[in-house]
Design brief:
The chain has 8 helices and 4 strands. 16% of the residues are buried. The structure holds calcium ion (3 copies). Pfam families: EF-hand_7.
């Protein structure tokens, strides 16, 4: 029966799913296909959101009715497909990305950080291009990219 199926999507778009799977795998430190609450706590630290074990347990309870104390990928996917958490997810993804660039953790990305990170990803960015990129993103003109500015660029989709 294909007719009348799901107005409300139960699955994430393909790109998002692939991204999520990557995240899931990075969370799953011991690679057993489950992310335990302790792995989640450590992962949240890495993303700079610092959830406590209690927070994590609360989330787990809402998605994992069996109270196994871990989540599997399908459970995570289901969770992320829910609209209410979608926003958090976006924000935390952005925050994680931002933190990747903000090497010294001072809350802003400098041109030097931008170039260093891109180089470490294997892409050499010409000075002028980095300059232009910062300039484009730097709405308040202080010469660095804040999280809000970063977010604005990424959500506008031309980064
Ligand atoms: Ca695991
Ligand atoms: Ca910085
Ligand atoms: Ca700025």
């Amino acid at each position: 029966m294909e007719i009348g199926v799901s107005v409300k999507q139960n699955h994430l778009p393909k790109e998002k799913r692939a991204e999520l799977l990557k995240i899931f795998k990075s969370f799953d430190e011991n690679g057993d296909g489950k992310v335990s609450k302790h792995e989640l706590v450590r992962a949240s630290k890495k993303m700079g959101v610092n959830k406590t074990l209690k927070d994590i347990e609360k989330v787990l309870r809402t998605i994992n009715t069996d109270r196994e104390g871990y989540i599997t990928f399908p459970q995570l996917e289901k969770l992320m497909a829910g609209e209410s958490v979608e926003i958090d997810y976006e924000d935390e993804m952005l925050r994680a990305k931002f933190n990747e660039f903000d090497l010294d953790g001072d809350g802003s990305i400098t041109k030097k950080e931008l170039k260093t990170v891109l180089r470490s990803m294997g892409s050499e960015m010409p000075e002028a291009e980095a300059e232009a990129m910062i300039h484009e993103a730097d709405k308040n003109g202080d010469g660095v990219i804040s999280f809000d500015e970063f977010k604005a660029v990424l959500t506008s989709g031309d980064f």
